[in-house]
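G., the chain you wanted modeled:
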Amino acid sequence: MTTSSHVDTFARDNLPPKAQWPELLFERPELSYPERMNCATELVDRHVAAGRGAGIALRAPDGACSYLQLAAQANRIAHVLVKEMGLVPGNRVLLRGPNNPMMAACWLAVMKAGGVCVATMPLLRARELTDIVNKAQVTHALCDKRLEAELRAALPACPTLRADAIRSWYDDAPDALERLALQQPEHFANVDTAADDVALIAFTSGTTGKPKGTMHFHRDVVAMCDLFPRSCLRVRADDVFCGTPPIAFTFGLGGMLAFPLRAGASTVLVEKLTPESLFETIEQFRATVLFTSPVMLRAMAALAPNYDFSSLRICVSAGEALPDATRQLFTQATGVEILDGLGSTEMIHIFISHTAERARRGATGYAIPGYRATVLDEAGQPCAPGVVGRLAVKGPTGCRYLADERQTNYVQNGWNVTGDAYRMDADGYFFYEARTDDMIISAGYNIAGPEVEGALLTHPAVSECGVVGTPDPERGTVVKAFVVLKPGQAGDRAMIEALQTHVKNTIAPYKYPRRIEFVDALPRTETGKLQRFRLRSA
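Predicted structure as tokens:
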């Protein structure tokens, strides 16, 4: 490791032992990075220095912001962090905000000042924030005023974060972030961070009920921009990105901020989006690239005839498995190809996907250039083509948990073992079966919950569904489906029987849900992931 710029060495001190890191691969020429690198320089300042400062970087319902303006605002906020708040390189800075231009500028400012960003989902409550603040030993916070109450409520149980080390934006107070920023210079000398200095601690979204902090370097932020967007999206400077994932989620950090900035393109930041308003956003801003989740895509498919989305050239789905029924429904309704993407917070972003012309029905895709992937059996040996096993991946990014004993579960023999059950065909395409903890074993049969979900979603009465295993005295475990019906459909015994028959006729009959419960909504994380652990405990 190179000489760190961090005065506060907490992040580096709490990296896992080097022997527990995955093998890192830098086999492609675009991954030949210098030893010193600040990702904010690469994402914004580089364009300004090259004379491209007048180009639009951020778009929002209330106006646009050029690269020059974004750099100036981030510089002012960096001055506030250092001069007014006493930040030194390596301090952890909590960010709380929806997808808006100030959230973007604050994230870049933390990078410029050499801080370690700990971005949090807007809907987190005081108890959840307390766990994150204490785990990361957060010392400073920048917060949208509308989200400040929960953060303040967490403070009594957070000894490392003082009340006077918090600044809010969209606030009328004399010490509000915007007011302080206006008093600062437009230029800031970015901290000379090492490429392997920790830039962010991203907490997993909590589908398993126990989030973990994952640490990523400045180099990792740039690497995620130089692989999937280049090889699969083929991003252009005139692209306009839009979508739903929060910047606080690494899927959103890439798709809604870092990817477009790296390419000199622009991104549309909208705080709250419904299927209808997402279509309206595409229309208004002539968006070309869409990042969202399968549940949003399914809802959008039914609305497509009502909108002009002719500018849209490609769509990226990630966050959870994309059912083939949803992919077909959306593509038939819009004519726009969906790029299915598999990534993880541990790997920072997508490592398996495909180009539009290389899509294969039912497959997530193949290992994108820069990554290697395989399927391992329980002994850690590669499986034969078509055999289901544990997905393992390695590349220029990898899992480094913050002081967490689960590091050795995720990293095994140099591989990142993601917790996904996959099979790989002879051509290197990967087909999703389930999360390894979503595999239901019923009367000796292995049943993948997402496969049953995919069958249920092809029934015209079903809007959403989640499938888990539930205890049964005779079979050990049986398949149970939680189903959200479309408006006007009756959740009665006849519907249960109709859905069971439909599944039996669609996939192997032994996989049908022996129990069905109709619900008004499914538990999801803020990023749209289905929380099956909550269904299991229901």
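The chain has a mean pLDDT of 94.

Shout if anything looks off.
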